[in-house]
Structures are given as C-alpha cells and as structure tokens.
Design a protein that fits this description.
- This protein is of the alpha/beta class.
- 42% of the residues lie in helices and 16% in strands.
- It has 14 helices and twelve strands.
- A seven-stranded mixed sheet has the order 2-8-7-6-5-3-4, sandwiched between helices.
- The model has no long low-confidence stretch (mean pLDDT 97).
- The structure holds pyridoxal-5'-phosphate.
Length: 346
C-alpha cells in the first residue's frame, strides 16, 4: 500500500501519545460552573500570552468568530474584513445567521490598507446605510496562502478604526504561525485589537478548541454568547489539557512546518507549470493556481494525487491548497511535490 501524505489541512493531525497521556490525566470539573481547573489554567495562560485581561474557551474557531461578531456588533451592522476571509467564506453564512451582520470584503492577497478601510467605512445613522461598527483582520490569512499581515499595516488599520469608532477583531486561528514567521510575540500582534481568537486545533495539533481573549467586560459578554450558541461545555479539561500540552511541546516547532512549506513550494515550481508566487509562502500553507493553458483542473489534480497517496484540497476550480503540519516530514513534503509535478507534467 502506498503511504498516505495528508496535506489537506493542519487540522488532520493525530494527538500524540504524550498528548493523549496529558488528556487522560487532566484535572477536570464542570466548566459551566467555572470549575474546570485545566480550562481555567489554559484561559489564564493564554490571556497572559496574548497580553489581555481575560480569555474564554470555545469549542471551535468558527464559534469563536461568531461569538466575537455577536459581542462587538448589533444585528444589521456591517463588518469590514479582508477579501476571502474565513468568516465570509468558510462559516456557512454564520455571520449573517448568528450575528445578523453583513461582511464587506476589501483588499487583496490577505491584506488591506488603512486607507481602504477608511474609504469603505459607512457613516453611522445615515438614512439608508448599514452602520459599519467592526473591522476584522485575519492573520495569518488562510485563503491568501497563509500570508502574515505586516504589523505596521495592522497598527495603521487599528488607529483608523479607533478614530472612526469601530471595534477591532483579530481572527488569529493561526496567530501562532504569524508570530513564528514574523518573530513578534503574539501579545504584540494582538495588542491593537479589542478581541483576538486563537486556535489549538490547527498547527498546534490539539484535537479541538479555540479561545477568545480581550478585556474582562468583553470576555464576560462573549461567555454569555457562547452559552447562547450552545458552546458552554462541562468537563472540558480533557481538551484544555491537550491545548496546554500543545503550547508546551508543539508551539516551538512551527518553524519546521514553515520550512517544509518552502521546500514543498520550491520543488513544486521548479520547472513546473503552476502559478505560485513564492513570496506568499510565509508560513505553513501553500496555495497555488493552475494556469488556463493546462488541461487539468484542481478537482481532477486532487483526485489523481489522492490515488497516489497525496491529499490536497481543491480550493477553487483552478486553485489548490496544501498545508504542512506536525504529522508530515520533510521527505514526505518533497515526495508530495514530486507526485504533483509528475501529474502536472503528464
Ligand atoms: C480554521 C479557521 C477558523 C475556524 O476554525 P474551526 O475550528 O475549523 O471552526 C477560523 N478562522 C480561520 C482563519 C481559520 O483558518
């Protein structure tokens, strides 16, 4: 049997034996009563790491985004976010269904400027406009290929937001990767924002969980929205223990994934016909495009690669995403790139 190299997402990782042992031994209590010691420890540790007063556990990053939007907006408001943001593309319209807001996408390639934000912001209390009340930044930006948003741009965006009276939210599901790539601590990346979301189930390799951090008042409000959406859990310490273990043992190895992504991307473009700007390969994600001159499209390439043991995601008709993570080695990434190049050459 050919070995299976799964590059569809950094969420496909298996918990390690050591992580499972940490989960098995976790101290637990009823988290709806605030009595789960492991969850409390994780929340305190992450609030500190992220430089915020408080933090609250959420079962998924999707719920973290829904809760953040609910906490910082009112139904009928408009939220400005980068084009192809997760909240607009990957959450089944949850922003509209759960928070009652519409998302106005601006910018390109995972980024937008403070000037673009200013131009897109609608005035409040105008007869026919929805009120723009929140700006969201996604860092790293998934669909743009895991690019890191430059922090000087973030500072300008958040300064304009304050000037215009907009709340600020950082979707940092992969903020750990942004920190590893930029060398800036997550607290600095999160500092200009009212609320920040981080995930444990992506590059950190835990089986689940996200968290929102912010002021005590905002986190108390977020906790109420979490409960309303059905996200308040009981003996959650089993999950929290996995997240704590990931912070101890997996956080520091993220640069390996970034190096593997670069090796994969360079091997893929070497002499191959794919459209891939290597400057976008900054973290663990590689998004590439198939030129119109190629007969093969992304779903076909993905299916043929699967038959040869390499799993990648067709992200669009001619767009493919591959994600590196702790369950793939350098050699497997090189092999996967060779398989894709073979198929593209055929
Ligand atoms: C994965 C992801 C989410 C959602 O996380 P889930 O745990 O899969 O619900 C939110 N934002 C970004 C940028 C993501 O990549």
């Amino acid at each position: 049997m050919t070995e299976r190299i799964d590059l569809r997402s950094d969420t496909v990782t298996q918990p390690t034996d050591a992580m499972r042992a940490a989960m098995a031994g976790a101290l637990v209590g009823d988290d709806q009563y605030g009595e789960d010691p492991s969850t409390n420890r994780l929340q305190t540790r992450c609030a500190e790491l992220l430089g915020k007063e408080a933090a609250v556990w959420l079962p998924t990053g999707t719920m973290a985004n829904q809760v953040a939007l609910r906490t910082l907006t009112r139904p009928g408001d408009e939220v400005i976010a980068c084009r192809e943001s997760h909240a607009a593309w990957h959450e089944l319209g949850g922003a509209a269904a759960n928070a009652g807001v519409q998302i106005h996408e601006i910018g390109q390639g995972g980024r937008f400027s403070a000037d673009e934000l200013r131009a897109a912001t609608k005035p409040r209390n105008f007869a026919i406009f929805p009120s723009t009340t929140l700006v969201e930044v996604e860092n790293t930006h998934n669909r743009a290929g895991g690019v890191v948003v430059p922090q000087d741009e973030v500072l300008r965006i958040c300064a304009v937001a304050r000037e215009l009276g907009l709340a600020t939210f950082l979707d940092g599901a992969r903020l750990w990767n942004a920190s590893a790539a930029s060398g800036l601590p997550v607290s600095e990346l999160a500092a200009p924002f009212d609320l920040v979301a981080v995930a444990f189930s992506k590059g950190l390799g835990a089986p689940g969980g996200s968290l929102l951090a912010g002021s005590k008042a905002l986190i108390a409000a977020a906790g109420r929205h979490r409960h309303r959406l059905g996200g308040a859990m009981r003996q959650n310490g089993i999950f929290a223990a996995a997240a704590l273990h990931a912070l101890d043992f997996h956080l520091a190895r993220l640069p390996e994934d970034h190096a593997n992504a670069r090796v994969f991307a360079e091997a893929l473009v070497a002499g191959g016909p794919v459209l891939l700007d290597l400057a976008t390969v900054q973290t663990n994600i590689v998004v590439f495009h198939l030129p119109a001159t190629l007969a093969i499209d992304a779903p076909t390439l993905s299916a043929q690669a699967r038959a040869r043991g390499v799993l990648v995601n067709a992200f669009g008709p001619r767009t493919v995403r591959a994600v590196m993570h702790l369950d793939v080695t350098r050699a497997q990434c090189q092999h996967a790139a060779a398989v894709l190049r073979d198929l593209l050459a055929a």
